[in-house]
Amino acid sequence: MGRPPTERPVRDGAELRERLRERVRRLGQEGRLTTGDRRRIESILGQLEGLEGVDIDDLLKDPDLVRPGDGTGRDGDFQGPMLEIGEVSELFAEVARPDRLPDANALDFVTGNMMNAIRRRRPEVLPLRPVPTGRKGPRLPVPAKPLSQLVRLAAIRRSDEAGSVVWDDGVNQLLVRADGIETSVDKGQVVVTIPVEADGISASMQVPFAVGREDRLSGLLAATADRPAGHARVARVWGEALIALAYGALMDAADSIAGASGRDEANDRLVPRALMAGPEGLVVEAQARFRFKEGAP
Fold first, then answer.
1. Percent of the chain with pLDDT over 90
2. Where are the domains of the chain?
3. 84 — phi, psi (to 5°)?
4. DSSP secondary structure, 221-243, as one string
5. Are the beta carbons of 202 and 219 closer than 8 angstroms?
6. 3-state secondary structure (DSSP) of residue 274
7. pLDDT higher for 47 or 161?
8. Which of 7, 28, 232, 266 sits between 20 and 30 A of 145, alpha carbons compared?
9. What is the pLDDT of residue 195?
């Protein structure tokens, strides 16, 4: 014979409050409690008259207690604090020295070391546990100067790890200086500047992207003009390719930043969810991937 199913009794009304009072009073008599524990118990006893349908374990949680990396809210979104821009600049200078960069995939090397440094110094700003499927991860601020270096490293990776690459369409040639790329940021805008050279031409081509900002979120949407600003002939012949390089490098940088910040429940890297630009830099908001079942309509 099997055991009969057990049900948890409903706890509400006067009976609930009396049970809670008695259990909390007994807890208050424990000799191993700290002064802080006793203060919380006294606070609970003072609030019980207005409580209904709560569990004793929930009552004893201190809502003001911040645990490193334990910032997941009830809906699964990570709700830890965000680093200040100045803190990121300081940490970035420590981990992104040019003499320490590897010859290949320096982008992920830098973002990985950056997040490791953040975890050591400010563990509460990054998720300690896996982020549930489709839920928000941390918000990651990137100052203007470090953003330039990350986009530059992403562009070099897209150029087969070459600092300079020659584009050839069969008629025209263009020298693209991936290692000279710079970015600038303003409210809702990121501008990627790419230095280029051709016969008798030395120019800087600017590719502006309208992205989200704190008061106007737009996910990963990045709108731009049909041609870069700069030398007219270069823009006419190579405009689409330059826009593709700038956009790809910016998204690669955001992907590397988000991916280094944590993992989801399938142990995959987090991905970027939104970009928000302001005068001081770019904020990358991460999230866990959505999962789709094979064969689902």
1. 59
2. 13-59, 85-287
3. -80, 150
4. --B--SS-BS-HHHHHHHHHHHH
5. no
6. strand
7. 161
8. 232
9. 98
In sequence order, the 6+-apart residues with CB closer than 8 A to the CB of 30 are none
The pTM assigned to this predicted structure is 0.74
**Rounded to whole angstroms, what are the CA distances from 259 to 138, 213, 254, 288?**
11, 21, 8, 10
Helix (H) or strand (E) run with residue 219 in it: none
Task: Residue 273: name the closest of 144, 158, 131 by CA.
Answer: 131
Could you count the other beta carbons within 10 Å of the beta carbon of residue 96?
Answer: 20
* pLDDT in the model for residue 93: 84
Judge contact between 261 and 115, C-beta under 8 A.
yes
| Token code pair at residue 156 | 């070099």
Centroid of chain to Cα 32: 41
C-alpha 19: how far from chain center: 44
Structure tokens at 139: 């918000």
**Residue given tokens 């050279």 in the structure block:** 197
Beta carbons of 148 and 182 less than 8 angstroms apart = yes
What's the CA gap between 169 and 159, in Å, rounded? 16
% helix, strand, coil for the chain, step of 5: 40, 25, 40
Structure confidence at residue 9 (pLDDT): 42
Quick count: other Cβ atoms within 10 Å of Cβ 199?
Answer: 7
Beta bridge partners of 204: 195
Please give the Cα distance from 174 to 172 (Å, whole number): 7
Q: In the beta sheet, which residues pair with residue 275? A: 284
